[in-house]
Amino acid sequence: MREGRLKPSKGRPPKLTKTNNHEDDELQKLKDENEILKLRNAYLEKLHALAQKKRKSQTKKKPK
To answer: What's the whole-model pTM score?
Structure first.
């Protein structure tokens, strides 16, 4: 073996930083989408509760 020669590296090459940026972007998009879906769900639940309350008040007024 000659001195000064580089030994071949073993194992997997390190991950590129571009992949991490892409993963960070994807994670942020998913977090944003999750927040939007939570807000939409809360809105629809409130709307449903108000509709039930309105139906309930209308049925009480009918038997006069």
So the answer is: 0.57
